[in-house]
């Protein structure tokens, strides 16, 4: 049985509900200030010198336009955060050859609770793809599915697995099971 255990990373556990609330409130305030700045300055810059500045026509409904800008900006940020944390973090891989199954220990980064799941090898499918990102560079992404349902997504470069001392052994073991 090959076992790869990642000690519960502290950085991921600090991402709780309070931290998410703080992130969203900061994004909300920044979007609000940007919306106010945009509403009050752009029309004056674009004004061609006609009868009165176009800003005066915007002043009556500036709060509605600002709310729309804030909600659109916050929506896109929330959607990206939901995608980021939709799947739990894998902390343990156990390749059990005797029972022919992959045992995963999964960590919910919001609540800090762990759960375990076992996937028989005949239902296991591991997809591998590389992504190129300007911030993280080349990324190795493994999607672990059971019965066409995603159980875990492991992005080696964006998680604590990057510093794991036996990462090459884990990558080799994952590559053996790629369908």
Quick structural summary:
With 179 residues, this protein is α+β, with helices and mostly antiparallel strands. The protein has helices at residues 10-13, 17-46, 55-59, 62-84, 167-176, and strands at 2-5, 89-96, 101-107, 114-120, 124-133, 137-146, 149-155. The chain has five helices and seven strands, in the order βααααββββββα.
Overview of this protein structure:
This protein is an alpha+beta fold and 179 residues long. It is built from five helices and seven strands. Helix 2 packs across helix 4 (62-84). It is elongated, with a radius of gyration of 24 Å.
Supply the key terms.
three-stranded antiparallel β-sheet, 40% helix, 179 residues, four-stranded antiparallel β-sheet
């Amino acid at each position: 049985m090959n076992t790869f255990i990642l000690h519960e990373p502290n950085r991921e556990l600090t991402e709780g509900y309070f931290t998410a609330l703080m992130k969203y409130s900061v994004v909300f305030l920044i979007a609000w200030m940007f919306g106010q700045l945009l509403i009050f300055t752009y029309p004056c810059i674009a004004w061609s010198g006609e009868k009165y500045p176009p800003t005066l026509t915007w002043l009556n409904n500036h709060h509605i336009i600002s709310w729309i800008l804030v909600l659109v900006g916050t929506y896109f940020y929330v959607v990206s955060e939901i995608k980021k944390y939709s799947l739990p973090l894998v902390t343990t891989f156990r390749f059990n050859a005797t029972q022919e199954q992959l045992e995963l220990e999964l960590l919910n980064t919001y609540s800090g609770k762990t759960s375990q799941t076992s996937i028989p090898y005949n239902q296991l499918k591991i997809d591998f793809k590389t992504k190129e990102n300007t911030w993280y560079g080349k990324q190795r992404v493994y999607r672990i599915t059971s019965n066409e349902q995603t159980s875990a997504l492991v992005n080696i470069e964006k998680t604590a697995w990057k510093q794991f001392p036996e990462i090459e052994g884990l990558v080799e073991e994952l590559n053996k099971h790629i369908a």
